[in-house]
Design brief:
Number of strands: 14
CATH class: Alpha Beta
Number of domains: 1
Shape: globular
Order of helices and strands: HEEHEEEEEHEEEEEEE
Radius of gyration: 17 Å
Strand order of the largest sheet: 3-5-7-8-9-10
Oligomer: single chain
Structural class: alpha+beta
Strand content: 25-35%
Largest sheet: 6 strands, mixed
CATH architecture: Alpha-Beta Complex
Amino acid sequence: MKAVIPCVNESFLERHKRLGHDQYDEMWEGVLHMAPAPNNEHQRFERDLVQYLHTRWAIPRNAEVLQQTNLSLPGAGATWVDNHRIPDFIIVTADRAHIDCDTHFEGAPNVVVEIHSEGDEAYEKLLFYAELQVPEVWIIDRDSKAVEIYLLREGKLMPTPAGADGWMRSPSTGVEMRPAPSGKLSIRLDGDEKTRRELPGKP
């Protein structure tokens, strides 16, 4: 269920911040969007996926995988707080380091990743990511581990088809993903079976 709260009192916001839930809050053109904290399955999956990408892809390329990063439009300056989105994590290469403003990024990382669960706003964010000119967005279903990859074409993020073998390949990274029969996510780099893992791993 979605709800819009026209006015939120200060005590509610203070409690929300005290519990640490505000780290997931987003501002959409001046409208506060307060997402619930992710469940344990989401957190385990995100943790293991970030760890895999960080150690196997990012470190060898002098790149970064960053979680819960505020993304705003170029030139936003101090007004970034009025219009930003927070994906589950991003992948960003060294040549884009100039967009890092410490508290937020002004501009597009190489890849934005959203782990989707029922009722969240992952798909609604695609318009903002297209405006930001993010080259590539992954939406991975938390439960089924189904993977969708959207590529920026003529200002729009368009879905790409899986290969004949079911693998979804990221053009920006060479990372390949597909749901495994185990209910986990199979992931590998550039078709190399030696790099293949199923995520999340054991707790």
